[in-house]
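Supplementary notes for students who missed Thursday's class. We covered one full example, reproduced here. Read the sequence, then the structure, then the short commentary at the end.
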Amino acid sequence: MPFFPTSFEELIDRFASLPGIGRKSAQRLAFHVLALPEGEAEAFAETILRARRTVHTCPVCQNLTDGEICAVCADDRRDKSVICVVAEARDVASLERSREYNGVYHVLHGVLSPMSHVGPDDIRISELVKRVAGGDVHEVIMATNPDTEGDATAMYIARLLKPFDVRVTRLAYGIPVGSNLEFTDDATLVRALEGRREM
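Structure (token representation):
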């Protein structure tokens, strides 16, 4: 016998279907939403619907936007000759937090994953190739995750871009700032040694 009314259980199920939300967190969120004044609950629901209706991918870089093009592509101060390739739109936010990168982005919306049946036609690789073929790009920085799928995607794209006389680089790997060598895994140590630079 269920503890809660059916509609409340459905709300919990909806929250639990979100990434990173377990059953207990979903229950907490559902209780919170139910406790909201009706106007706030309606505004919350309307915000979700409005975002769903208005947010789309930028035709240039495939990042999320609610305008014609995204804010990064529209910014004349950005260096359009350098493209940083990321797997997901949330990766753009991570790189922007550093306040060090001044180029533009290309969002793939996934990585190559034969096990999950994700091939080159399932992500936004062809759009990147078209941008590079335009001739104004001097460097493409591969910023996919340093795992098997991210590395495979980066290598595949690097091979595709070889004919275009463009520099293709990969984000450096290494030991995180503030960590201890004693606790660093072997693969990270090897990559840190390979990526060492002059001081």
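Commentary. Helices lie at 6-16, 23-35, 38-54, 71-74, 89-97, 125-133, 148-161, 186-194. The first strand starts at residue 56 and ends at 57. If anything here is unclear, bring it to office hours.
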